[in-house]
Amino acid sequence: MRIGIIGTGYVGLPTGVGLAELGNDVICIDREPKKIEALQAGKITLYEDGLEELFHKNVKAGRIHFTTSMKEGIEGAELVIIAVGTPPHPVTKEADMKYIHAAATELAEYLTGYTLIATKSTVPVGTGDDIEALISKKNPFADFDVISLPEFLREGFAVYDFFHPDRIIVGANTQKARDVIKELYKPFEGKTRMLFVKRRSSETIKYASNAFLAMKIHYINEMANFCEKTGADINEVAKGIGLDNRIGARFLNPGPGFGGSCFPKDTMAMAYMARQNDVEMTLIKATVDGNIKRKQEMAERIMEAVKGIENPKIAVLGLAFKDGTDDCRESPAIEIISHLLEMNAHITAYDPKAMGTACYLLGDKITYADSMYACLKEADVVAILTEWQEFKELNLAKAGQLMRHKVIVDCRNLINSVEAKNNGFKYRGIGVPSIG
Ligand code: NAD
User: Rounded to the nearest whole angstrom, what is the distance from the C-alpha of residue 23 to the centroid of ligand 1?
Assistant: First the structure.
């Protein structure tokens, strides 16, 4: 199938590469010339496990191309996928639709023959109708359908998730549109669940899923606070409740709050849509507010650990919003660092993959270390903010020799507290008894 993908970011690029690998003829379009020039020159523009290899393979096979030209990307396409950003509006926090509206308007004049337009971006309910209206206005003779095809990939696992989708949700109001999608996903037939629903239901499913998962994280974080007061251990509690298969074990890891490009913005957008429709959604509101507060609390916790030390030096391990990605958008680590900087802290940080993206956000406000151990030199406390495997394997004896004070604030519960104690560390985890 000839496919045009608008937006070559964390969703558009893995999707484009995956669809090319399935044998389709893909053109990825992006308005950022630098991104396209890099991709045309064979340089991958973001980190995702396994993506680079697959990218080179498909470029070599001539199945994927990159362009800044909407005309080149859309003309002749049977399927157009919209994967542009829908960031939070700076004031209202609703999903900002300017990129979606621009993409819909720009693509309209280049449609040739029947074209299916699939929105992979996370968009408010009713956006499909808006896209349809924008295209018809610009090109009254265009023959097309607009569907909602929400993306459920997990950053860090984008390639795996593309080839092993849990489920495929399709919001399509016509049979013709459903047939194109069935053809596209034929390679996954019998291997995944495919659910066809109304377009508005599909748009809602994406927000409802993300809000639910965010709520689950917020719930376990509140439960961790409870455990800290009562002497229970959140790791044991989470394991125990996760054994109930009505609840499930996933998304029950306590931590510094949720982040990334999706959960914070999608919960805020959902809360906005609820207000607009005059529907009370107290759980989502509590989740949004609680998650903002959580980052401030984590920063205070880190400062508390160096109380009484003059000009304390804080070593931060982890900048990405989670392991397996270089994405720092809405990363709890970045927000916690910003709070720490407001409290005049001196910070040295290290992340195995996200130094570049973090530097873009934090500039020279902090010092960047070349390695995990370099980061710990002369530190008065180490704060672990991202759950990288490398940090789990921290050699505590070596760490203790490098640091000025042996203190760990483990916001991801990666370190074994008994081992920390045996190596002379003061240890504070999340929802577990503190040591020292
Ligand atoms: P991103 O910011 O990484 O990429 C978006 C790209 O679109 C950018 O490269 C930008 O230059 C390009 N773009 C914007 N307007 C354009 C236009 N008119 N023409 C051509 N290119 C244009 O965003 P992302 O993380 O890939 O997210 C895209 C959408 O998918 C969002 O709605 C997001 O909520 C949703 N989503 C993201 C994830 C994720 O894990 N990142 C998961 C599921 C859904």
Answer: 23
CA distance readout (Å), 65 to 109, 295, 326: 21, 41, 24
pLDDT at 156: 87
Report the domain count for the chain: 3
Task: Round the average pLDDT of the chain to a whole number and report it.
Answer: 97
Lookup: tokens for 287: 């989740």
Domain harbouring 399, CATH code: 3.40.50.720
Q: Whose CA is nearest to atom 20 of ligand 1?
A: 30
Q: Which of 28, 262, 328, 375 is catalytic?
A: 262
Question: What's the full length of the chain, in residues?
Answer: 436
Return the structure tokens found at 186. Answer: 């034929």
pLDDT of residue 436: 84
Q: What is the CATH number of the domain that holds 233?
A: 1.10.1040.10
Q: How far apart are CA 255 and CA 391, in angstroms?
A: 15
pLDDT band at 232 (very low <50, low <70, confident <90, very high): very high
Range of the domain at 349: 294-428
- Ligand 1, atom 40, lies closest to the CA of 155
Kindly state the tokens that stand for 86.
Answer: 């829908």
Q: Does the structure show a pLDDT above 90 at 36? A: yes
Which residue, of 197, 224, 255, is where some domain finishes? 197
For residue 187, the model assigns a pLDDT of 96
Q: Which atom of ligand 1 is nearest to the CA of 152?
A: 43
| Its pTM surpasses 0.90 | yes
- Catalytic (active site) residue 262: yes
**Confidence check: pLDDT of 433 > 90:** yes
Same domain, 419 and 318: yes
275 shares a domain with 154: no
